[in-house]
Amino acid sequence: QVQLVESGGGSVPTGGSLTLSCTASGFINNKYCMAWFRQTPGKEREGIAMINSIDMVRYADSVKGRFIVSRGTTKNINLKMNSLNVDDSAAYYCAAGVGDGDGWCLKYTLSQDEYNYWGQGTQVTVSS
Q1: How many CB atoms lie within 10 A of CB 40?
Q2: Which burial class, exposed, middle or buried, applies to 52 when counting CB atoms under 10 A from its CB (0-12, 13-18, 19+)?
Q3: In degrees, to the nearest 5, what angle opens at C-alpha 91 toward C-alphas 2 and 84?
Q4: Residues in a beta bridge with 13
Q5: Contact assessment for residue 46 and residue 63, using Cβ atoms and an 8 Å cutoff
Q6: What is the mean pLDDT of the chain?
Q7: What are the residues whose beta carbons fall under 8 Å from the beta carbon of 121, sequence distance 6 or more?
Q8: Residue 94 has pLDDT above 70, yes or no
Q9: Can you tell me the distance from the alpha carbon of 71 to that of 43, in angstroms, rounded to the nearest whole number?
Q10: By C-alpha distance, which of 98, 100, 91 is closest to 119?
Q11: pLDDT surpassing 90 at residue 104
Q12: Rounded mean pLDDT of 104-114?
């Protein structure tokens, strides 16, 4: 059974940094695409960063140059968030997407429709 658990959320002042982690169980994550999404009340979930099975990364324009997604171990990915501002306040979700058939995931997308498994989320609050 695939499970994703996020950690590392919290409160930081504007300009601060925070690192989120996503720990996976039930699969080896380097065969999957892994991504981070975020959502604020009343808004659609936004894909902000992803890494696929050949370590290609993609970022939303809103976080490009400030956030870095990386693999820690085969069971963990991280999201290093720098230069945080109040617009980054949201619930952050980790997601995993499978490849075609039983293959490696080579997707290069931030569309939530392409991700099959989701964590419960962790809250990030940036104060002014």
Answers
A1: 13
A2: buried
A3: 120
A4: 127
A5: no
A6: 93
A7: 6, 39, 91, 92, 93
A8: yes
A9: 28
A10: 91
A11: no
A12: 93
